[in-house]
């Protein structure tokens, strides 16, 4: 599998800059434009039964042109070939079409543009192994195991420029390796490695840990009754919780219209544990420090010591609700959420848990009562019963139904020192750059329903 719609040997930043320079000469004095550039050069590897089943390289680029005339505007997305003449011709066609479209549109009362000539550059080169080296290491480590996994890695490029003189460039190399080890009865242990470099020793340690967890499935399965249990949620499980909350809970628009799951946290009616602090970490993250709308993203504290102190405000929400924008995307979702670490050492997790549930992952999450941030979902993969600080049995799949104001609020006891980076493994259309940096959490009460 090799896809090369963008075959240019020029550096992506030079390709982007040349298109911007041409556009500046192509628009009239009454027109303004913004140009968003997105490209990647990615390796993909699929594994099944610890063997490489598919490997390939994808190199692609696209640009989204916005034309603005007063308060009227429209967008047009084009695929780029890497050939300067062909790409300028595609943008010229897009510009011609946009002029016809914009002329028919009404004014947008909530249009807000940043007309300052800002500049931003962030280059994170990374240190990734070749696809061949990764394939060899994974198949060697997992030899004799039923491993199913997917690797995606390489540089991604994002650029923004406007006729007002702003220019942003973001270039970051990263990789994700998402895999599961299965035993003959179909039980599995799921793991993910995500980083800006390929650390073979860390991958080996994660593989060893997964193999040791898989061995516990040889013990008789424990069937738990519905009820409240002491529980440890690993970073991957907490990432599922945060992922659901991220669909609008921090959004200024959702908060203004009373549709946020964190509405009671925002109003001060309820609180999380003082151990919970979340922030949007725009600077230095794998996501660009600017948005397709042309605003620079800002670091923003969202929750501090259990209290909601900030929200994600897009330019449109800022204009509609009289707020100050902080570079949030139109969807007002976090792109790089970070939770503060705690004091619980990794080697002390089971001992501190004592007797209760070790939850490696969760899935199929949804709200059972959004007004109090009550979530429901299923335990998944490595979920074990622990007694006296030792794993004694795997646990049958169970449904939970609980509010974060409980298990991340009054019942939260400890947060781990170590945090795991989780980078989006979505490759729908292109590789995505959203990420979280999360610890594990120990709670004294987590409710299972069936």
TrEMBL record:
GO terms for molecular function: peptidase activity. Residues 226-448 form the Metalloprotease TldD/E C-terminal domain. It comes from the Bacteria. The keyword Protease applies. GO terms for biological process: proteolysis. Keywords: Hydrolase, Protease. The keyword Hydrolase applies. This is Zn-dependent protease. It comes from Pseudomonas asuensis.
